[in-house]
Amino acid sequence: MITIQVGNSGTVYSGSAEDLNTLRDQFEHQHFLRFSGLLAPSVMAFVQPKVHQAEFQERSHEGIGENKELCMTSNTASAALLFLMNDKKLFQIVQAVTQCDQIGCFQGRVYRVNPGKEHHDSWHNDIGEHRLVGMSINLSKEPYSGGMLQIRDHASGKIVCEVPNAGSGDAVIFSLYHRLQQRITNVEGTTPKTAFAGWFRAQPDFLSLLRTRSQPVRDALVDQPSSHVLGSLHRSRQGVVH
Questions:
Q1: Total-model pTM
Q2: What is the residue-wise DSSP string for 24-86?
Q3: What is the pLDDT tens value at each position of the chain, 242 positions in all?
């Protein structure tokens, strides 16, 4: 069984080069991959309470049609997630299985979609700003209904895949092509969906990205209860690859 997990000491991969080739073939065929348990339990134990206590503001993304979501205000949880996802070993794995160009950074935000609150998404492709591959990580504490990733052929409108991601800490990476579009289906029932989502980008590099996130990063590094998570992140900032 292939394991890809991001934890206190960085990214751990248990598999062979042949396993990566298998994942590459799957990604090329179906345009997505699911990484079960990408975030280690210790990371989820740190992140989820802070996400639960965080402030969220309604936000609409420009240029993709009508849409609405709740976006989390930057805090120590978002700073920790930013550090964890900007791991060179994770970049190497994503590059190997997607055959994308060299990754410079991962940039994302924590969002929430509440059922019955007119929160919804529209078809879009995320092309531009040096984006290479998309990724969404489920941060929800409880299972939710709906909220699936759909990918369609832009020209024909045919749905080529529909991907649930209801496992806490699970991730889905997906293609960003001009001929494809994606959206998240409406969340149903009573339980909201919360996720950390964004893109692996060719530019900027991580240190350049950090200059725009300086205050949340400082908050994360001095937060004593999170030292077991962020100590390794501070070392990775100094160029240590685990």
A1: 0.86
A2: HHHHHHHSEEEETT-B-HHHHHHHHHHHHHS-EEEE--TTSSS-BEEEEPP-HHHHHHHHHHS
A3: 789 999 988 999 999 999 999 999 999 999 999 999 999 999 999 999 999 999 998 877 555 555 567 899 999 999 999 999 999 999 999 999 999 999 999 999 999 988 866 656 678 888 889 999 999 999 999 999 888 899 999 999 999 999 988 799 999 999 999 899 988 888 888 999 999 999 999 999 998 888 876 555 555 544 544 444 455 444 444 443 33
